[in-house]
Design brief:
The protein is an alpha/beta fold. It has 18 helices and 21 strands. This is 4-O-methyl-glucuronoyl methylesterase-like domain-containing protein.
Length: about 650
């Protein structure tokens, strides 16, 4: 029995409160609501789950060396249990023997095609999974077992590429539009699991069948997939040690991308969007973690670790709005601890490719190059890429007011010490274009005009979170983008890609600078260029998340003689756990807010924010005397929050901005 402390809510009371908060804030999702109506249960007791905004080592607590390696199987069982409980649900155990038959064999173009029926005839089972095994026809009198690329049936071109390398391929009917696992699920009514877990289970059953197929080297079966199929491939390898390796191509959140590092506040895929658009992929209870991804007891880096010590390739496109390159790097770095424990540190590899979500022929060829190096020839040992010293995150304890105010020249000096000089960026010059509006440093400026054109009612500088793939154009969104809403309301809106994002994804702050230093300098320069182009003598600021911190640092530094002063600012969720600074700041959010006293400013403060301690932003606003609007929501830019920002500018901008 749980002890009840007087004056402290019980676990059941907390769960009811969390349930009410989330059901009031979550966008409608009929499958989730049906699950709740059927007795799906209350939200978890988040207060009892560790709060981790960053990643931890999957082998934390294990000793180094042989003792740690010997303890890995037990740790792996714990990690698998976490994934089953919180994400995938429970699946039937593997059968002692999986029946399989060959329905048809034909040969065409030097390829033998075997149509397999896997599972049919299993005692008590009313299901089967179809698989098409493709093997190169050997020369007469030659018997040769080849490695096989195990894929879902939507990856026919991948199979052709494998055959061209002399590999075999196996296409399994466990994909969108061709999914035999729906019948599998009906055959096991007591097992409750998400669709991707069922597909992973089906891949393992096909692997059972491949053990007995002539011409197949069953010790070298590589599982792979793209997008949702990449998630499935990782699950299959995590739960089944027999797969020789895995290719995860653009697998997104809870594939190779940690949910806590690619959320609504990053304009990423996020748990809310994932569970609303694809409600059947995971167990229904995952939706409770929308906005509280930092309380999720496991994450994608532990899924990657579950494949250790087998080779894993994580392929990520730098302009893919589903993913974030920084999140992919963090996941691979954290999971590599498990590989290092088993003396296979280089078996886990991150490969970045140009372009968006699609994996074209060159991407598939690169994946097969990697596969041949790790499964078909001498192991490849690429050197680790040198990593520059990491910037300092904006610390949560700097959100609350400090022991004494920091104002005026002292604040400006402290800000310069924390963000460093603006400097020049490295990693190549920005893209050029004769017709583009640009700052002196070459940063492209996009102006969104009102529907009737012209300079509109005023100028708004949009500062959002750095969406790595798409820059100022947020990737996955839940509503009309805020810059477009503001333009429709009659404003000219100035937008630009922050350093390291969108068209500038190859750029990095130079020595002595920091991401926040570069972002602040760019914002000031963009305002000057936009004002000159539109005829406005000042700019209003609409900012969210990291962008709100940029706006506050811009205000704290003060406007120079050539700068355009901010007329006022509407700031949503001014907190961020991203690595932004050159040094730990000697000031707080309250100090930054106090520097805005000479202009209208409002802070929109979400009810729960993993990047800020509870009530800390409210305390900072009180200390600075800045108005605060509480939001019954989490750290995101929902349609309701966008409407509040547009309305605030409508009221204050109509009074204050002369043209």
């Amino acid at each position: 029995m749980t002890e009840v402390v007087p004056g402290r809510p019980s676990a059941a009371a907390r769960r009811r409160r969390y349930t009410a908060e989330l059901t009031g804030a979550l966008p409608p999702s009929e499958p989730f609501e049906a699950w709740l109506a059927a007795g799906g249960g209350l939200a978890p007791d988040f207060a009892r789950l560790p709060a981790r905004t960053g990643l931890w080592s999957p082998v934390e607590g294990l000793p180094a060396g042989p003792d740690g390696a010997a303890a890995w199987p037990a740790r792996r069982a714990v990690l698998r249990a976490r994934w089953r409980r919180w994400l995938t649900g429970d699946l039937p155990p593997a059968p002692r023997r999986t029946p399989a038959r060959v329905d048809r064999v034909r040969t065409a173009g030097g390829v033998e095609v075997r149509e397999l029926r896997v599972g049919e005839g299993w005692v008590g089972a009313g299901w089967s999974v179809r698989a098409r095994l493709l093997l190169p026809v050997p020369a007469a009198g030659v018997r040769r077992d080849v490695p096989v690329y195990l894929l879902q049936s939507s990856h026919g071109t991948w199979a052709e590429a494998a055959l061209a390398r002399g590999w075999g391929a196996c296409l399994v009917s466990a994909a969108d539009g061709d999914d035999d696992t729906e019948a599998v699920e009906r055959a096991f009514p007591s097992a409750v699991a998400g669709r991707l877990a069922w597909r992973a289970w089906a891949l393992s059953r096909v692997l059972d069948a491949l053990q007995d197929q002539p011409g197949v080297d069953a010790r070298r079966v590589l599982v792979g997939g793209h997008s949702r199929n990449g998630k499935t491939a990782l699950l299959a390898a995590a739960y089944d040690d027999r797969f020789a390796g895995v290719v995860s191509s653009s697998s997104g959140v809870l594939g190779a991308i940690p949910a806590r590092l690619c959320t609504d506040r990053h304009f990423g895929e996020g748990v809310e969007l994932l569970t609303r658009h694809y409600p059947g992929w995971y167990a229904p209870q995952l939706r409770w973690f929308a906005g509280r991804e930092h309380r999720l007891p496991t994450d994608a880096h532990e899924l990657l670790a579950l494949a250790a010590p087998r080779p894993v390739l994580v392929s990520v496109a730098v302009e893919d709005p589903v993913e974030r390159v920084p999140a992919a790097r963090a996941a691979v770095d954290a999971a590599r601890d498990a590989y290092a424990l088993l003396d296979r540190e280089d078996a886990l590899e991150l490969a970045l490719r140009p372009g968006g979500h699609r994996a074209d022929g060159s991407a598939v060829a690169a994946q097969l190059d990697w596969a041949q190096s790790v499964l078909g020839g001498p192991p490849r040992r690429p050197g680790r890429t040198a990593v520059a010293p990491s910037p300092v995150p904006w610390p949560a304890d700097r959100v609350r007011p400090g022991p004494r105010p920091v104002r005026g020249a002292e604040l400006r000096a402290a800000v310069r010490a924390a963000i460093g000089a603006a400097g020049r960026t490295t990693g190549g010059p920005p893209a050029s274009g004769e017709d583009a509006l640009r700052t002196p440093d070459g940063v492209a400026v996009t102006l969104l005009h009102p529907p009737d054109g012209g300079s509109g009612r005023g100028l708004v500088l949009w500062l959002g979170p750095p969406c790595a793939a798409t820059g100022w154009r947020a990737g996955y969104e839940q509503a009309e983008p805020l810059p477009a809403l503001l333009a429709a309301a009659g404003w000219v809106v100035a937008c630009h890609d922050p350093v390291g994002t969108g068209s500038r994804h190859g750029e990095h702050p130079g020595p002595g600078s920091s991401p926040l230093g570069r972002m602040t300098a760019d914002a000031a320069a963009v305002a000057v260029v936009a004002a000159a182009a539109t005829g406005h003598d000042r700019a209003w600021v609409a900012a969210y998340g990291t962008g709100a911190l940029v706006a506050l640092h811009l205000s704290a530094l003060g406007a120079g003689p050539e700068d355009v002063p901010p007329a006022g600012m509407v700031l949503a969720a001014p907190s961020c756990g991203e690595p932004l600074l050159r040094a730990r700041p000697g000031y707080t959010l309250a100090d930054l807010l106090a520097a805005t006293a000479d202009r209208p400013v409002v802070v929109l403060d979400p009810a729960w924010d993993p990047e800020a301690p509870p009530r800390a932003v409210a305390a900072a606003c009180r200390a600075a005397g800045v108005p605060r609007v509480p939001l019954a929501d989490w750290h995101r830019l929902s349609a309701a929050t966008r409407a509040v920002m547009v309305d605030w500018l409508d009221v204050h901008g109509s009074r204050r901005d002369p043209v």
